Structure formats: structure tokens, C-alpha cells
UniProtKB/TrEMBL annotation:
One Gene Ontology MF term: methyltransferase activity
InterPro entries named in the record: DNA_methylase_N6_adenine_CS (IPR002052), SAM-dependent_MTases_sf (IPR029063)
Gene3D superfamilies attached to this UniProt entry: Vaccinia Virus protein VP39
Name recorded for this polypeptide: Methyltransferase small domain-containing protein
Organism of origin: Klenkia taihuensis
Gene Ontology process terms (BP): methylation
Length: 240
């Protein structure tokens, strides 16, 4: 079952579209295309693809129901020739792809286990397990949603260790919703916040869609700015 959050989907679509337009030459997406971890309902990326005729996206999702819905959404947007959705594991399916760029709005609920109301939203004990796996891969560029309560300190430290820099980002606040308020999830969020590994207040958290890159063709590093936007203490990031 795909997760539906209109505000988050709109934020991801807007941010992704801006990144792909601004860095079209550096990302070379017109040549190698783009791969996507986790299709969801495909609405956000379908909108982006519809506005970028030269963009080809190949996506994988492990949830069969999400794949069926995503394919219908892709057809509805008239981009089936540009946006393919496959049922299966991203890491196996994308191996050997010529694409240099990964896009993802990964599941990021932190919890001790995946026995949740919507198990597909589980992002591992710290909420960033899938994103960390992406950062371990061969990709030159990663455009990803980073949640302030899913150990962004660990995520940014792992990105730096893997040679990534934060080239740009767009952050916005979101309300803690039904799934993030599930008791075991909320308890884990509070543990991460208390440990200085994230931020959330009683009602909200931050999500940033960030371009992480290893390319020398893209200058600068805004990691400290991203940490600030996620309400993280920059010294904690430096010490991670």
C-alpha cells in the first residue's frame, strides 16, 4: 500500500524538478537517465518527468500494490515512455545501470522493528537505513529526502565519509502525522532527539530534499547549512 502525503509529495516534486533543471549538465541525466529507489504512488516524479521531456527514470518498489498504482499514475500523466516502474529490489535491479544519479524519498520512520501500522514506512532503527545503503553504492549523485528525526547526523557523516558533499537543498517543516505518532515510532524519535541525533518538537519536524554529489564539476559544500535547516547543532555534525 503506497503512502500518501500531499505536502511531502509536492515538496519532493518541486525540489527534484529544481535540482534536475539547475544541474542538468552536471548530472548528465539526459544521457544516462536516472534511477529511483522506492516509487510510492509515482505522482511526484511523474509531474517532474512530464515537465522534462529528455528525462528517463527507471524505478523499483518492493510493494506490488504500490507498483500497480504507480503504473496507473504514470499512464495517467502520459509519461509511460519515460518513467518505467518495476516490482523488485532497487539494489539488485539497478546494478550495472549507466545512470549516475539516484533519486529517492525513502521510508524513514525510525523504530526498533518493522511491525508498524504501515510497515513499508520503516526506515530501520534510526530511520536512515535505506539512505545509508544508497550512499554506500557507486552513484555519483544522490537526490534524497532527509528527515530531521531520522538520524540526519549519522546520514551526513556517512555521506562525507563516502565522498559526498551537499550541493543544494530545499527544506520545509511537516507535521508529525498518524504514522510518526505511533507509540513505538514516537518513542524512538524522542530517543534520537535526546541523543542529539535529530530534531522534532511536539508537533513537527523538518524534511530537506538535498543534492549530494561526489562530482568535482559541482562546487561547494552546504552540509553545515543543511544541518542548521534541520535544527541540528553544527558542532555535533562536525564531531560525528
Amino acid at each position: 500500500m503506497p503512502f500518501d502525503c500531499t505536502a511531502e509529495s509536492a515538496h519532493f516534486a518541486c525540489s527534484l524538478g529544481l535540482v534536475l533543471r539547475q544541474y542538468a549538465r552536471e548530472l548528465d541525466w539526459a544521457d544516462g537517465g536516472v534511477v529511483e529507489l522506492g516509487t510510492g504512488d509515482a505522482r511526484a516524479v511523474s509531474e517532474v518527468v512530464a515537465g522534462l521531456p529528455g528525462l528517463a527514470v527507471r524505478s523499483w518498489d518492493v510493494d506490488a500494490a504500490s507498483v500497480d498504482e504507480a503504473r496507473a499514475v504514470v499512464a495517467e500523466h502520459g509519461v509511460a515512455g519515460q518513467y518505467t516502474v518495476e516490482h523488485g529490489d532497487f539494489f539488485a535491479g539497478s546494478a550495472g545501470s549507466p545512470a549516475r544519479t539516484v533519486i529517492t524519498n525513502p521510508p524513514y520512520l525510525p523504530a526498533p522493528d518493522g511491525d508498524l501500522q504501515l510497515p513499508g514506512l520503516w526506515g530501520g532503527p534510526d530511520g536512515n537505513a535505506l539512505l545509508l545503503r544508497v550512499l554506500e553504492g557507486p552513484w555519483e549523485h544522490v537526490v534524497a529526502a532527509v528527515a530531521s528525526y531520522a538520524d540526519p547526523v549519522g546520514t551526513l557523516a556517512a555521506a562525507a565519509d563516502a565522498g559526498f558533499r551537499v550541493a543544494s537543498f530545499l527544506a520545509m517543516p511537516l507535521e508529525l502525522g498518524h504514522y510518526s505518532r505511533e507509540p513505538k515510532v514516537l518513542a524512538r524519535i524522542r530517543e534520537l532527539v535526546d541523543a542529539g541525533r535529530g530534531w522534532a518538537d511536539e508537533d513537527s519536524y523538518m524534511v530537506a530534499v538535498a543534492l549530494l554529489t561526489r562530482s568535482p564539476r559541482i562546487a561547494g559544500d552546504r552540509s553545515a547549512e543543511l544541518a542548521g535547516a534541520l535544527q541540528l547543532p553544527v558542532p555535533a555534525l562536525a564531531a560525528a
